[in-house]
TrEMBL record:
This is Peptidase M14 carboxypeptidase A. Pfam families: Peptidase_M14. SMART domains: Zn_pept. GO terms for biological process: proteolysis.
Length: 372
């Protein structure tokens, strides 16, 4: 995503290796490691403690391909029902640390927490894809996809026939949407929709969201490093449903959430925003839940596992936690609903992909595109 195209800005006047702040970046000679992050075992133990010592309710909503529990936490008893989903991609870890900090704060109680939980019900899936993260527990590189075995295959409407092995959980959210709607909106052949979702992780989320009548789904991810035309590092991006089958009301609510998050946090330290350039198809979570009539928002933050490892952990978790908290407070107070959906258009355009150690002349396709 490094070259300037329509809807993006290029840091034309920035030196190739200049960005502010100037990092942190992992030195070329350093070993990427993940020992500062919560392991799967630690995650389950932490959630069990929160369940036993507070009003938060923890349970497993299903199992991964490798038999790991898919964790789910419920807090509050108000309206609306709001989902926070982290780590659909196993190599996007800071969002889970921020979600844990959020849950621990809510469990501690106090006026601020009580006001939120009186007015809404929060549903958190902190690490939808524990199989993808599992290698990091042994300090190996975690994976974006799930752990479906290589000899398990399916034909699908979005990526063709003979799809074998691991799949991206964030590309399997179309299951349960009316096939005629998918055919009209995305031009797919409904006859090739598989009988079973190749991502049991995604299906567990879809089932739980339907069970509780989810009103809002927010999907928390990570991306590589970008900079804007002022050479500033971009730490946060957002986008709403773009599929033509998403009802206007759902899109408007989604745009309000994106705009409110931007307006409330753009003045915070290390919280420079842009608009994420996402796709339109209904297999992507952001679009699929919009098509279902829900508020549906993507949040992306700097911090791809293979690029940063433990570097910048504290800073990024704070940035993400601030956004998570502000959105909840805006929903609980009602202030978020006063935002004009058109305000989402004030988000700065997409920045320029910043590859610190590689001159632009040497960029390849893998440096130009990284999708939600």
């Amino acid at each position: 995503m490094g070259l300037a195209v329509s809807g993006r800005v290029a840091a034309q006047d920035c030196q190739d290796d200049f960005i502010k702040p100037g990092g942190p970046f992992v030195p070329e000679t350093a070993t990427i490691n993940y020992n500062a992050f919560t392991s799967n075992e630690e995650l389950y133990e932490t959630l069990e403690k929160l369940d036993s010592r507070s009003g938060l309710e923890y349970e497993s909503i299903g199992e991964t391909w490798q038999g790991r529990d898919i964790p789910y936490v419920r807090a509050g008893d108000g309206d609306p029902d709001v989902f926070y989903i982290t780590q659909q991609h196993g190599d996007e870890q800071h969002v889970t640390e921020a979600a844990l900090r959020l849950l621990q704060g809510l469990a501690s109680g106090g006026r601020r927490s009580d006001e939120i939980l009186d007015e809404l019900t929060l549903h958190v899936v902190p690490r939808l894809n524990p199989d993808g993260w599992a290698p990091a527990d042994d300090n190996e590189t975690p994976t974006r996809a799930n752990a479906r075995p290589e000899d398990v295959c399916h034909d699908g409407p979005y990526f063709g026939s003979d799809q074998c092995g691991p799949v991206d959980p964030n590309r399997q959210h179309y299951f349960g949407i009316d096939s005629a709607t998918l055919a009209d909106a995305d031009g797919i052949d409904p006859d090739v929709i598989p009988d079973e979702n190749p991502s049991p992780e995604t299906q567990a989320l879809l089932d739980k969201a339907d069970e509780v009548g989810a009103d809002i789904i927010t999907d928390w991810h990570h991306q590589f490093t970008y900079r804007n035309e002022d050479c500033e590092m971009i730490n946060a991006s957002t986008l709403w449903p773009l599929n033509e089958a998403a009802p206007d009301e759902a899109v408007a609510l989604s745009r309000q959430i994106s705009a409110y998050a931007y307006q409330q946090t753009k003045g915070y330290g290390h919280t420079t925003w842009d608009r994420y350039p996402g796709g339109t198809t209904a297999n992507i979570a952001r679009n699929a839940h919009g098509v279902r009539g829900r508020g549906s928002v993507l949040f992306e933050f700097r911090g791809q596992a293979s690029q940063l490892g433990n570097a910048s952990n504290g800073r990024l978790v704070t940035v993400i936690n601030n956004v998570m908290t502000e959105v909840l407070e805006g929903l609980a107070s009602g202030d978020l609903y006063d935002v004009d959906p058109a305000d989402a258009d004030s988000l700065p355009p997409r920045g320029d992909y910043f590859w610190k150690e590689l001159p632009r002349s040497e960029w390849g396709p893998e440096h130009e595109a990284y999708r939600e």
